[in-house]
Design a protein that fits this description.
mainly alpha, 68% helix
């Protein structure tokens, strides 16, 4: 095996990038904790890696931040829907005379769900699905490109 100019073994750098793709994929099942580990590894190793592997570390960092942004947006929409829903429920019960927790009597037959709540719930679900698809597709594409010895965004030299 040949050594890279920085003294880092290219095969070890490649294997680490492969593990990172696995961590990014596994983050779907473990609430994002493996993705956090993968992005820390990618940030710490990208400067020492060969250019083709560096492009994979950059792509792994991009995968993390896009998934993080989609997840935060989905969480904000879900939280907004929850707060709006609880606010509507509190307003509804206040109108009906809620006088304490000892005598709770709620008649939900006249309760109408506001369109804003439905829109926020739909947005939360759609953004969550997008984050999930992103965390499946992007690491798979990167993994396939890494296994086939191609960088991300790098053009192959003309033969």
């Amino acid at each position: 095996m040949t050594e890279h100019l920085s003294g880092r073994d290219p095969e070890a750098a490649r294997n680490l990038a492969l593990i990172n793709y696995g961590l990014l994929f596994a983050s779907i099942f473990f609430a994002g904790v493996p993705a956090l580990i993968a992005v820390i590894i990618a940030y710490s190793q990208r400067d020492e890696a060969p250019p083709s592997i560096r492009s994979h570390h950059d792509f792994q960092i991009k995968i993390f931040w896009v998934a993080f942004a989609l997840t935060m947006a989905a969480g904000a929409c879900g939280l907004g829907a929850l707060i709006s829903g609880v606010g509507e429920l509190m307003e509804f019960t206040r109108v009906n005379g809620w006088d304490g927790f000892s005598t709770i009597n709620i008649d939900l037959s006249r309760l109408a769900i506001d369109g804003r709540i439905v829109a926020l719930l739909v947005a939360a679900v759609v953004l969550s699905l997008l984050a999930g698809v992103w965390l499946i597709a992007a690491p798979a594409i990167g993994f396939i490109r890494l296994v086939s010895a191609r960088g991300i965004g790098l053009t192959s030299p003309a033969a």
